[in-house]
Amino acid sequence: MSELNCFIDESGLTNYLPHSPFYVVTFVFHDQSNSIHNQIAHLEHNLLYNNQGLKRIHTRPMIRNSKPYEEMPLNDRRYLISQLFMFAKKSRINYRYILIDRRKARSVDELKKCIERELSAFIDEKTALFQAYDSVIVSYDNGQKMLSQIVTQTFESKLSNSERRHVDPVIYREYRLAQIADLFCSLELTAARYEHNMVGRKEDAFFKSKRDFTKNYLKPLRKMLI
Predict the structure, then answer these.
(1) Which are the contacts of 136, defined by CB distance < 8 A and separation ≥ 6?
(2) What is the pTM of this model?
(3) Could you give the percent of the chain with pLDDT greater than 70?
């Protein structure tokens, strides 16, 4: 039985605030027939070997040097992000992202319509790919009720082979592929902030420069777009 797994994460607020003008959703896809056991084992070994055996890695606060990582040295934070990103590159996964400029969709209703439209168009575009699988398993930790409803309704209305899988949020955040969805959200958000000259001081210090960010993260990331 062929199975395509989809892990979802989001970055942004449902209510518009001027200091948080972007809303990002990422969908990370993994063909279950492509085993990533060796890649996971390699990642876990590297993290433990370097005394960074964290089960949960929340990338946005790690990049911004905020709780619970405010005491973690910069080089350790960079190491964790780089190892997670390297794991993603070696795991033959793909992703898609939705980026909403909240300055053009300020109300919750406008945001909802934008996400629904973008997700619906994406599924329509890739219908043949999705239908090639016996099942498409969609996982999300229900971090935002609005997004959870959109995801469930859109996938179920568009794909007869889709299945929404409910996972306990604590367990979900320990899945490495869920952490990849979180990482890709953070990277796409940083890309948008660099593009609009809104990147923060700590964010820029983490990546060293826009040029380094583009070379080391954004270009390799975009090669995984589906």
Answers:
(1) 3, 4, 6, 130, 155, 159, 161, 162, 163
(2) 0.95
(3) 100
CATH number (domain holding residue 59): 3.30.420
| DSSP label of 69 | S
Structural domain harbouring 134:
3-222
Instruction: Give me the helix-helix angle, 74-90 and 37-49, nearest 10°.
Output: 170
- Per-residue pLDDT tens over the stretch 127-174: 999 999 999 999 999 889 999 999 999 999 999 999 998 888 888 888
What would the two tokens of residue 43 be?
């990642």
Query: Domain count of the chain?
Result: 1
Return the percent helix, strand and coil in the chain, to nearest 5: 50, 20, 30
Half-sphere exposure of 158 (CA within 13 A, CB side): 23
- Average pLDDT of the chain to the nearest whole number: 95
As a whole number of angstroms, the longest Cα–Cα distance in the chain is 48
